[in-house]
Amino acid sequence: MITDKKSYKYYLERDLKAYQLEKISFFNYWWMDCVRFQRRLRKIEYLHNVRQSNIFCRFQLLFLEIINHRLAIRLGFSISKNVFGAGLCIVHYGTIVVNSRAKIGENCRIHPSTSIGEYNGIPTIGNNVYIGPGAKIFGGITVGNNVAIGANSVVNSNIPDNVTIGGIPAKVISSKSSLDNGVFPKNFIQESSY
């Protein structure tokens, strides 16, 4: 969670690295809608968690929430603030629905047609998790660290660390972790330390 200006900068830096970008350019900001949505989301988190004291920040927060909500509708996203850790990569626009009370760790790579929802509890997802297209994750479950979730998987039970899962319902299909599968950019995970 963003708790101060230093953590806000860290989140922005890690998110850019997840997209394999060193810095944000005018072109990237206006033509990469997912990046624009995500950078606004991080600013909203910063203003909401840290800077609510003065009236200017409150108006800025309201304005950013309105324009980001409009962009989210266009992109098909339903993602609330303070859900994802640093290093989030939304691979492509399309329907992504994430419960506002879900907790997802650092370095999450998420694809379209994904739903993370509530059913007898909220999922908790660890660090370095790859979520394939069409995955459904729901219930009061825990998904471990370094997990790769295959396309169209339905995850409704606890998942251990360092595995690849798939199927309906999802079960372990490989002992390879998300780090072994090459789903994250080279040297991205090793640099992660806040």
Structural notes for this entry:
This protein is an alpha/beta fold and 194 residues long. It folds into two domains: 5-76; 95-174, UDP N-Acetylglucosamine Acyltransferase, domain 1 (3 Solenoid), CATH 2.160.10. Helix content is 30%, strand content 18%. The chain has helices at 5-18, 26-31, 33-49, 55-75; strands spanning 77-78, 89-90, 96-98, 103-104, 109-110, 114-117, 124-125, 130-131, 136-138, 142-143, 148-149, 154-155, 164-166, 171-174. Strands 2-5-8-11-13-14 form a six-stranded mixed β-sheet. Strand 13 and strand 14 form a beta hairpin. The protein is globular. The mean pLDDT is 90.
CATH class of the largest domain: Mainly Beta
Total discrete domains: 2
> What would CATH call the architecture of the largest domain?
3 Solenoid
Contiguous runs where pLDDT drops below 50 for at least 5 residues: none
Number of helices: 4
Order of helices and strands: HHHHEEEEEEEEEEEEEE
Share of β-strand residues: 15-25%
CATH evolutionary superfamily of the largest domain: Hexapeptide repeat proteins
Q: Helix/strand/pairing class, anyone?
A: alpha/beta
- Note the main sheet: 6 strands, mixed
CATH fold field value of the largest domain: UDP N-Acetylglucosamine Acyltransferase, domain 1
Q: What is the C-alpha radius of gyration, as a whole number of Å?
A: 16 Å
Mean pLDDT: 90
